[in-house]
From TrEMBL:
Annotated keywords: CBS domain, Isomerase, Metal-binding, Repeat, Zinc
Site (Catalytically relevant): 53, 105, 146, 187
Name of protein: Arabinose 5-phosphate isomerase
Catalyses which reaction(s): D-arabinose 5-phosphate = D-ribulose 5-phosphate
Annotated organism of origin: Rickettsiella grylli
């Protein structure tokens, strides 16, 4: 049994794979530029094709491209030979991955790609292979050795291929001027997506759920409205439904401490006028910032005429996990 320490083997793997990545730098030449131009000018999709470990890497590359502004999808090379090739059209560009450059499942689809005049970009460790000779552009992935001690399991080659895919994706992202807002649009359920897409209008309480009493309402009736709507507050409006102020459960406690008669005291006398409001199209993150800096837990959404449209509670925002 080999008694070599696990960490020694692991360190060797990392060093070999790191070297494989660094060996990609000389490959960022005119061929790389041409491939990126073809991807950038693609009117359809970048179709990534591979099989085996190359297929797994290709799937990840396609996902990275798609999420960074370059429409892309993955096709398994075997399935491409049994109908999935119909997913490709003349507006697409194919990015094939084959370390040997002799993958039969890829060689067999070349006639169809040529017939459709589809650019064929190849990532391979063998620039003299059958596929390389037929490719529109060949991106060489030079590998001195696999990190596997047997030299069999794709390790250095798969890592270097993935890194080259990342390099392409980010180069395209930078050229397109793809922004964090663009990124959020294709990641709506991700943290960044929620921060950059979630608007106040998406989470505000409106209609029957909006606590609202008319000017001149006694505190006892105001208390019923607060209790029923369960937001710890109510807005106060005039006869034209314009916002006059806000009355919270904190205001109610202070009124009770002052010994005010809940039956006869009108809400107008104890409400907070000139309360904070926000536009419905503002981001939830902006609403949260306003609430935190103002030390309030509810925020009224109003239009330009000061008519209330809804209300948002700080818990409504925090529950969306945008912080």
């Amino acid at each position: 049994m080999n008694t070599k320490k696990f960490s020694d083997s692991a360190r060797n793997v990392i060093e070999i794979e790191a070297n494989a990545i660094l060996n990609l730098l000389p490959q960022l030449d005119s061929k790389f530029e041409r491939a990126c131009e073809l991807f950038l000018n693609c009117q359809g999709h970048i179709v990534v094709i591979g099989i085996g470990k190359s297929g797994h890497i290709g799937n990840k590359i396609a996902a990275t491209l798609a999420s960074t502004g370059s429409p892309a999808f993955f096709i398994h090379a075997a399935e491409a030979n049994h109908g999935d090739l119909g997913m490709i059209n003349s507006k697409d560009v194919v990015l094939a991955i084959s370390h040997s450059g002799e993958t039969d499942e890829l060689i067999s689809i070349l006639p169809t790609l040529k017939f459709l005049n589809i650019p064929f970009i190849l990532m391979t460790g063998n620039p003299n292979s059958t596929l390389a000779q037929q490719a529109t552009v060949t991106l060489h992935i030079p590998i001195e050795q696999e990190a596997c001690s047997l030299g069999l399991a794709p390790t250095s080659s798969s890592t270097a291929t993935l890194v080259m895919g990342d390099a392409i994706a980010i180069a395209l992202l930078n050229r397109r001027g793809f922004s964090s807002n663009d990124f959020a649009k294709v990641h709506p359920r991700g943290h960044l997506g929620r921060r950059l897409l979630l608007k106040v209008a998406d989470i505000m309480h409106t209609g029957p759920a909006l606590p609202n009493v008319r000017s001149g309402t006694p505190l006892i009736q105001t208390l019923f409205e607060i209790s029923q709507k369960r937001l710890g507050m109510t807005i106060i409006t005039d006869e034209n439904q314009r916002l006059l102020g806000i009355f919270t459960d904190g205001d109610l406690r202070r009124a009770i401490d002052q010994g005010l008669n809940l039956q006869t005291t009108l809400v107008d006398h104890v409400m907070t006028a000139h309360c904070k409001t926000i536009n419905k199209d503002k981001l939830a993150t902006e609403a949260l910032h306003l609430m935190e800096t103002s030390k309030i837990t509810t925020l009224i959404i109003a239009d330009k005429e000061k008519k209330p449209l809804g209300v948002v509670h700080i818990h409504d925002i925090l529950s969306r996990k945008i912080t």
